[in-house]
Amino acid sequence: MELGECTRNPGYQDVDGGGSAADTVNHEEPEERRDTTALKLDADAEYTQMKPYAGMPKELVLLHSSKARYRVPREIMFWLMVACTLVMVALTVTVIALSPQCLKWWQVSPVYQVYLRSFRDSDGDGVGDLKGIQEQLDHFQYLNIKSVWVSPFYHSPMRDSGYDVEDFRAIHPLFGTMQDFEELLAQMHNKGLKLIMDFIPNHTSDRHRWFNLSRTGDPHYKDYYVWTDCNGSAPRPNNWVSVFGKSAWTYDEVRGQCYLHQFLKEQPDLNFRNPHVRKEMTDIIRFWLEKGVDGFRMGAVKHLMEAAHLRDEPQVDPNKAPESVASEWDLHHDYTTSQLGLHDLLREWRAEMDVFSREPGRYRFMVSESYDYHEVDKTMMYYGTPLVKESDFPFNFHLLDLPQNTSGSWVKHLVQLWMANMPRGQWANWLVGNHDKPRIASSAGQTYIRVINMLLLTLPGTPTTYYGEEIGMENINVTDSQTQDPAGKYNASASRDPQRSPMQWSGDMNAGFNNKTNITWLPVHPNYTSINVEAQREDEGSVLAQYRFLSALRQSELALQRGWFCYVHADASVFSYLRELDGLNRAFLMVLNFGKESAVTDLSSVRELPDQLKVLKSTNQVNDGKALQKSGIPTEAGESLVIQYSTSTRFNPNHPEQCYVSEKACYLSAMDILYKC
Ligand code: GLC
Ligand code: MG
Fold it and tell me: Which of 133, 349, 475, 601 is placed for a possible disulfide with 633 were both Cys, Cβ 3.0 to 4.6 Å?
């Protein structure tokens, strides 16, 4: 038997009473002697020699351990351990496989749009700034908002309120410094808030260094923009028009050619067929990701590429004189929007953002802006495909049409436009305003501001709130001399100034927008004395209080956050739907009156609903807590109800064609967990 070398117990006495093992271990010892010693050992006699018990020589251990009374339990233990490990691995894999995805930060709270110029002016120059946002971070926390989208603050000559960028890596002094930005971002992160930046890839300012090098024919930069030969005295190489009106081409005297601008002539379109341009823009995205921004709103993306052949676009009215084609509505934009290659660009940027999304909790979010109107399929393309991701969601602009017809059926139709066309498994989103569109409280009327906010906060998906909507701010009247917006200078009715007035924080001077001087870049709405944050914080029945309540409810209730959304009823006044989660008894019924008259809604045919219902929250405070029969739910025009009820009968299995869910999940009350089902 080959025992080899071993370390011996220093207290062990050799059979013949020799010294300690330490003394007697001798590597020169003849092989036979060591072997015979071991073999001659009588196990029982040897026990008496153990000093102490531990440290048995290897040969003894082997001798005893092979006995059945040791071997069998040992083997049992061993196989038990193997079995336990396998069970644990199987359990872990099952739990992972069965767990639905955790919602990401951009899903759990509304996105709040800060129009920087108008949010809060910290230094009194009349224009909102980065420090101003920092002063108001509590407002977001007060409203349970985690995601804040800030309009552009890049260095810019401000021909289009900063959407004309002169330097993508610098902050405009009007808004502060790079240090102000870094401090704001750090402060926001400290408070658990996320910052989404505007990214404007389609064009630069005509003051951008690249454009100056391009127009002077620098070999590297000459193709950074879209240039073509044209006649300097009649510069219209084709019939393309700018979104802001008139030809999309301007003759440049320096280069002696025309350049393309789908927006202002001071906003030349970049040429994304040039790989250097693509790289420049990706580098800029990386620059801000490295600074720690949490996401981008990709602006005007459908305009990113144009057909290289530069052919005329077909006229909407073929009989119209070609010279009079001057508005974007005059043409079918077959060659200037949604061109092949556009989605590859967005996917490249998404891939760059994904590199920065790997750290836990640092997911970088992308939302895209594309007005495709009735071509909803084009909008849905921005979600990407199951294999290649793009935006987390494209903005859903359908509810901007809500004021066209305030009725329950109309609102259902607009909601359905999105829900029925959204690719399976994707996440919806809703908005009713932004810096480009009239304020909803003005276009729909104050009567409907509460019901609209309630709609947004209880539909499935992420709502976006344009600053001031949480208090029901309205458009201002802007005179010609006060006009700031270039779109308004082309056409007063297209001016976007009315919806960009200073935020109404309080009843103080300048509505608390700035308290240092009496200057504001646009006038404050005269209704600020009653419609302001401070006053509404004091009033439990205010638009603000309702927003705050619903935002908190949305965040705390699984059914509202990620449950089923099912249509229940729609008529000339009322739109009604419910939110439920399989396995969870608590569900919510929404009854929203968008009509012009009061209504009594009979939901007695909905057998999954209990007969007795109780109002959790009404837009009319006096109805909070009211008990109702499902056969007669009364609402005033513009009133809406959140009804919380308890049930073990779910609606969705019986009406699958009326229900949607982004990712199906079930609640297991015994363990208080969600699982895929
Ligand atoms: C985006 C902005 C809009 C701007 C346009 C051109 O669509 O939302 O305000 O005018 O881009 O840059
Ligand atoms: Mg373009």
Answer: 601
